[in-house]
Amino acid sequence: MVKLDGPRVHYRELIESGTMTPDPAQSAVVEELQIMHEVLAGYHPGPSVVGWRARLGLQKKSHKDTPRGLYIHGTVGRGKSMLMDLFFEDVSVERKRRVHFHEFMQEAHELIHQWRKANQENKSAEPIGPTAAKLANRNWLLCFDEFEVRDIADAMIVSRLFHAMFDLGVVVVATSNRHPDDLYKDGLQRDRFLPFIEILKDRMRVLHLTDGKDYRLDRLKGMAVYHVPADARAEEELAMTFVDLTDGGAGKPVAIEFRGRRIQVPKAYGRVAWFGFADLCETPLGPGDFLVIARHFHSILVSGVPLMSDVRRDAARRFMNLIDTLYDNHIHLILSADAHPDILYEGEDWKFEFERTTSRLIEMQSADYIESARARIDQDD
After folding, report:
1. Distances (CA, A) of 56 to 10, 53, 60
2. Strand, helix or coil for residue 163
3. In what order do the strands lie in the sheet containing 69-73?
4. Which end of the chain is more exposed for a tag (fewer CB within 10 A), N or C?
C-alpha cells in the first residue's frame, strides 16, 4: 500500500515537538513537496507511462507524460536540504536516490569514459544517450543537493544528458543556492550552456524559498568544535557533526588530484571532509597539499590529534602548517584532541612557533571566527 503521509505530516510533527519553529516560507515549500509526494505515489516510467510503440523505439516518448520536477532555490541556511529529507524519506518511488549534484556528475563523466573506452573503434558513436539510459534505469527519481554547475566539463554535457534523462522519464527534485538563470554565471562558453536552463525551467517548477532566519548559522554557533579528550565519545560527537553539516550525507572516500599525485580523503560529502590526524600529519603532505584541501572543502573534521613532542617533530610541523592554511582560508574546523590547545605541544623544538598555532586554535572556536567561516560557506555554496 502506498504511503501518503508525506512531508507535510513530518514537518508539522517537527514543529509540534519543538524541534523547529514555524516558518511560513518553509511551509509553502512543504506544500509543493507534498503535491510532488502524492503525484509520484507508485511512479514508474514504464508501461503505465510509455506506450508499447515507444518501448519498442517506434515512437518517441513525450516528456509531457513525465511529472514535472521541482527546483528549490534560496540563500544558505534556510533549510532546503532538511525539507528535501522530509520529502525523500518516504516518497514511494521504487528507484530513487538522493545525491550531491557534484558527485552525480563525477559518476556521469566516469560512465561516459567507460563507454568511450568500450566503443573506441567507433569514432562517430555518441556516449550521452547510452549513459543517460543507464542512469535512468538506476533511478527514476533523483533528488539533488546543491545543484550547481562550476566547470566547463559539466557545462558541456549537462544539457544533452538531462534532456535525454527527462525524455526517459526521470523526475528531478533539486535544491540550489542559485536561481536557474544564474547557473554557470560568467562561465566559459556559457552560450552553449544556456539551452539547458530553458530545459530545466520547462521540466521543473522553480520555487524560491524566501529569505528569513538563517538556521545554519545557529547550528554552527551552537556546535562544539574542539573535543577533549579524543576518545570514543568525541568520535561520536564528530560523527554527529558530520551528519549535521552534510544534512544526513553518508560520505565516502575520495581522492584529490594534485601535481600528479592523489591526496586521499577518508570521508567526504559535498564540501565537508573528515580526516584522522595521521591522514594529514603523518603522511608526506605539505602547505601546497593543505591549500588544495582548503579549496575543496569549507568544513573539515580532524579526529585523534595527539599530544605532540620533539619525538613527533615532523607531525607537529605539518600540524602547524595545516592550522595556518585552514585559518587563513576561513575553514570551519572541528577536531578532537588529547589536550587543550595551550598544552597540546610538549616539546622544545617548535615551542615558539607552536604558540601561534595555539592562538589560532583558540580563535577558531570563537563566534566571530565561526561567522567568518560561515561567510566562506555561503561563497562556496
Report:
1. 41, 5, 10
2. helix
3. 96-100, 141-145, 171-176, 69-73, 204-208
4. N
Count of Cβ atoms closer than 10 Å to residue 49 Cβ: 17
| Whether residue 61 has pLDDT greater than 80 | no
Which cell is 175 given?
Answer: 535544491
User: What was the pLDDT predicted at 20?
Assistant: 72
pLDDT bucket at 101, cuts 50 / 70 / 90: confident
- DSSP category for residue 23: -
Architecture of domain 217-380: 3-Layer(aba) Sandwich (3.40)
Q: Which CA distances in Å does 10 have to 71, 73, 167, 289, 313?
A: 21, 21, 32, 43, 52
Select from 1.10.760.10, 3.40.50.300, 3.40.640.10, 3.30.565.10 the CATH code of 6-208. Answer: 3.40.50.300
The grid coordinates of residue 350 equal 617548535
pLDDT confidence of residue 50: 40
* Mean of all residue pLDDT scores within the chain: 84
For 359-368, the pLDDT digits (tens) are 999 988 887 7
For residue 241, give the C-alpha cell: 557533526
Look at residue 233 and tell me whether its pLDDT is greater than 90.
yes
User: Which among 235, 226, 237 has a CA at the least distance from the CA of 358?
Assistant: 226
